[in-house]
What we know:
The chain is of the alpha/beta class. Strands 1, 2, 3, 4, 7, 8, 9, 10, 13 and 14 form a ten-stranded mixed β-sheet that branches. A two-stranded antiparallel ribbon has the order 5-6. A hairpin with a 7-residue loop joins strand 11 and strand 12. The chain has two domains: 21-230 and 368-495, Alpha/Beta hydrolase fold, catalytic domain (Rossmann fold), CATH 3.40.50.1820; 234-360, no CATH class. Helix 3 (197-213) packs across helix 11. The chain contains 14 helices and 14 strands. Mean pLDDT is 93; it is low at 1-13. The radius of gyration is 24 Å and the shape is globular.
Amino acid sequence: MSPTPPNDQPEVSTAVPPETIIQTHHTITLNGQELAYTATTGALTLMEEIEKEDKSEGEKARATIYFVAYTKDGAEPGQAEPGQRPITFAFNGGPGSSSVWLHLGLLGPKRVLTEADGSPTPPPYRLVDNEYSLLDKSDLVFIDPVSTGFSRVVPGEKPKEFHGFKKDIASVGDFIRLYTTRYGRWLSPKFLAGESYGTTRAAGLSGYLQERHGMYLNGIFLISSILNFQTAYFKPGNDLPYALFLPTYAATAWFHGRLAPKLQANLTHTLAEVEEFALGEYTLALMQGAALSAENRTAVAQKLARYTGLTTEYIERTDLRINIHRFCKELLRDQGRTTGRLDSRFTGVDRDSAGETNEFDPSYAAIQGPYTATLNDYVRRELQFESDLPYEILTGRVQPWDYGDHQNAFVDVAETLRTAISYNPHLKVFIANGYYDLATPYLATRYTVNHLGLTADLYANIHLTFYEAGHMMYLHRPSLAQLKLDMAEWLETAVSRP
């Protein structure tokens, strides 16, 4: 057999992979009322239009997107059809994360059983009914982007074609369009719920769904938001994160009892004081660089030490610029412990106490095992979906992530969100923030919101809430209870008609 000429392309299969969709029926008690619901799980196939050699059009399969959907049985009072009930499409971030965290931590009808503060119980782990589920207010669809969960490309396709900023938004957006069409939800009030990089995706989707599919949303839940990456990248020449992370450093020091008694008295009052310093005197000092006088430099270093629990000498050596990874290692160094990045309430122990950064994130270590074990058991035992594929909880297989047009520039989807709200002034945005979140600090989110450039009336569309917890604030039981109340109340306003 002669070798294939190098310019010849192998024939692309247009066969559609079989879709396995499983439905099971359940009940849960929410707010004292029994709610019957259907769980639908499986994978939908994303298709792409192609032009054949004879110029006719066809389609080819590209990827299968795994999802778990929960729909309330029967229509709501006052609704003609069940398909008119609100529906929320949810996903996490990474990039490379499945939707397991929002699924089994916050929104879904089951949640991982943990201690009240979010720390794990000893293995083996288990699920319990989630009395804080949003299912009483909205149907839910949890989406695993390509290469996460059970979602995979079809044979002949390259995974990297989905591993990028624009490609990811397009594939998730196309799935939402497909699900909405397949299950008759075009007339439902529609919401997105994203966490972490999932908030970046959600903001991007607000524009993509409008422009590509003509789909206008009622609202977006942003859990631990990052829309403007300049606010979180500690790079030479970018001083913005040092000021915006400072209140979270202070909250962390407060939680671990490292501040002076006056500052330890009240967290809210302390954070207000630190925010004023961060956006005022500290920002002005950073902007001056080497032109900052020795006297002012010393004064700023002393205030930073007072607010962070670090020593003045250490802060002087950092040139007044405290990197988040150094902070996690330094704050409790004298105790031989590190603090978490996702949730700085958690602490860990490294082999090398003299190192510059921590060896692992103790807040991620606390949740990885419980969520992995319970998800793998739940989808097979209760949802009856069988697959021998590994369920990719948080995978590095999506790296390197392609940021395409953002080379030599910070990713910023805040402008996409602003445009979406301008086109659709009924679009509401709910943003939840954790005081102990060192991945997406709350002041960085507030800064981004304050720079959206919306008119005063449209700024009223954005609602921010704050919790004494971390990146996944729902790990903290009191915060989970309050977050459910806040989300439910806000959702009702987002679907109400004048």
